[in-house]
Amino acid sequence: MATKKKGDPTVDAAQATATSGNGKSNPELDRELLRSMLLQRRFEERCAEAYALGKIGGFCHLYIGQEAVSTGTLSILRPDDYVITTYRDHGQALARGMSPRNVMAELFGRVDGVVRGKGGSMHLFDRNVNFLGGHGIVGAHVPIGTGVGFAIKYRGGDQVCICFMGESVVNTGAFHEALNMAGLWKLPVVYVIENNRYGMGTALERASAVHDIYERGASYNMPRAQCDGQDVFAVRAATQEAVDRARRDQLPTLLEVRTYRFMGHSMSDAVSGTYRTKAELDENMKRDPIMLLRMHMQEHGELTDEEIQRIDADLKAVVQDAWDFADKSPEPPIEALYEDVYVDTTSDSTAEPLAAD
Amino acid sequence: MAEITYLEAIREALFEEMERDANVFCLGEDIAAYGGAFKVTEGLSKRFGEQRVIDTPISEVGIVGAAAGAAHMGMRPVVEMQFIDFVANAYDMLTNYVATARYRADLPCPMVVRGPSGGYVRGGPFHSQNPEAGFIHTPGLKVAYPATAEDAKGLLKSAIRDDDCVLFFEHKYLYRRIKGTMPAGDHVVPLGKARVAREGRDLSIITYAATLWKALEAADELERADGLSAEVVDLRTLSPLDDDAIQATTKKTNRVLIVHEDTRTGGIAGEITARINETCFAWLDAPVLRVTAHDVPLPYAPQLEDFVLPQTNDIVTAARVLAAY
Ligand SMILES: Cc1ncc(C[n+]2csc(CCOP(=O)(O)OP(=O)(O)O)c2C)c(N)n1
Ligand SMILES: [Mg+2]
After folding, report:
1. Which domains can be identified in chain A, with CATH numbers?
2. Which residue out of A138, A271, A335, A339 would a mutagenesis test of the B interface target, given it has the greatest number of B Cβ atoms within 10 Å?
3. What percent of chain A has pLDDT over 70?
4. Ligand 1 in reach of A166 Cβ (< 6 A)
5. 3-state class of B104 per DSSP?
6. Is the ipTM of this complex over 0.90?
7. Ligand 1 in contact with A137 (CB < 6 A)?
């Protein structure tokens, strides 16, 4: 796919404020962050292509524009921590280290998919990296994140659970019930609200009586914060504080991360024109999180033009490999249909409780 | 009169009923500015304004409950579930509260909860369901599930005018694939009345919603390949069931196949079979058979989805067994 088009974060220059890297230089870390974010971007550009070709069906929601949130938060976690999220889950899955091959195979509905083709785009899951989904019902996974935190604390573990959600989730009953319990029981969960300002076609201000979402934490006696979601360093700093609090003091945090989605809500939604203007979109695209990080690195002499092109080419090859793998993977056999409906129809032994110690 | 789609027929019903009665209003997620996830309500807010076409937060319990409160006050709310799967969130409101309101407190609840239902679209486990059985099982609720554009419009108008709560299932696979010509004037199709979609002599296929079209295809195939004459009955309303129509077709052909897209165990086919046993046992020349979805969550992978859901061939095969019995 041609990538040297306008808005490509590896070639365009950002016109707005750069990142808050505190003037510090940490080339190795920064390179990791860049790779993580750019992998998500390149992966999802190909998802859009695969959707247009009919290789991906059903409902598919891209994360493009929000990559600093997944990468920034998850780069703070330990491998034994837990992650749970919504249907807009490709970014978190890749940032958490799930295999691009198996994720793509899931999107293609193939047997090598992370849940053997049964879940599709909205329901990615991988217990190897403690990634607990991928959930298609808005709000439903928030109590589940609370329960994961409960089990960690009950067993005396020091892990943390990050529970991601869009800003619309705060209007569901499940959110209130789950956060109240986490505040009441002091659970090690970081609730990350990815506030991209819209729930499908409805602006935050038209759906929530409170516009600074993090303030809702007050209702649950919960520590709370707000940060810039396009700046990966700002996301890392805010997450670090929340994760420390969870790990050390077993306290939950409500972290509102302000971001923006560059694509339509799903593949069938126009990018702009219905509920948000092209001008608003263009303005926000000036703060492409990948572009901002690249600029920071170049300002600090951490990255040359040749290097970014090399990284980009490398990641495109990773994504092409994922595509080829998914394309060759067979469709799930009919016999797989009844597997895992109940425990005694399970064909393998992976259905063990999740570890917390 | 020009043909319109199933989706446009629903939209027409909403326009006409809002025009007719100022107490009718619509609420749901993304129904105004966005026009609805499937654009069913497109143009509605422009015509009737934000007072009557209301974008809500993602709060299914809240909006169904608030609709019930407004209905007690004499209004006629039409609530959209963005996908009918999410009505599970409002199950408590509907089954505990709304369904019992008249019985326990003499409170009228003239409201409609409508939304896109069903599979065949690769929607996966949470965007493909047919949860009608849980509501049919609840006394106090009515359930309609149209298959044709004409019925989509006529039944929705009836549902909005009905003095009880009606769950109105719309099949998303049919939204833009099925067209019909609307009868002139105030086109209302009564709740509780089935329709013979195809006359036949040798066996009856009783069905509704998307599988009606598969049953009709199967009937053509049976005629062509086997010389069998299959009658196809479209239930249209699932609660109350049209017992007269079910008995009439059973007594006419003496062999009954029930087809639905919902899963098998606890699906409405079991209820219809029991009723036929109770009322028409002496007329039966064969056991009542059924073709349904398999008893599994709906998988995303195309090959698996196609296998789980009833297909025309499954109906043909079952009908042959029935005819040969
Ligand atoms: C209970 C429930 N209601 C409605 C939907 C339909 N729906 C899917 S995504 C969405 C908008 C969610 O917006 P937000 O939480 O802000 O997340 P974003 O899409 O912006 O990432 C809606 C209404 C759903 N999946 N589940
Ligand atoms: Mg949002």
Report:
1. 27-197+214-261+277-320 (3.40.50.970)
2. A138
3. 92
4. yes
5. helix
6. yes
7. yes
